[in-house]
Amino acid sequence: MRRPSMLSSVLAAVFLLPGASAGDEIYPAYRWDRVSAGVYVHAMTNPLAGPVDGNSVVIINDDEVIVVDTHIDPAAARAVIAKIRELTDRPVTKIINTHWHDDHTNGNHAYREAYPEVEIIAHRAAVEALRREWQAMEDQRREAYAALEASDVLAAAESLDDASDAVGYRVYAGYIRALKPELPTLQLVYPETTFDDRMELTSTGRRVIVEWLGRGNTDGDAIVWLPDDDLLIAGDLLAAPIPFAFDAPLEQWIETLDRLAAKGARTIIPGHGDIQHDHQYLVRVQSLLQQTVQRVRDARENGVSFDELTNAVNLEDFEREFAGEDIERLYAWNAYYLAPGLKSAWTSLGYPIPEP
Ligand SMILES: [Zn+2]
Question: Which CATH number do you get for residue 314?
Answer without folding.
Answer: 3.60.15.10
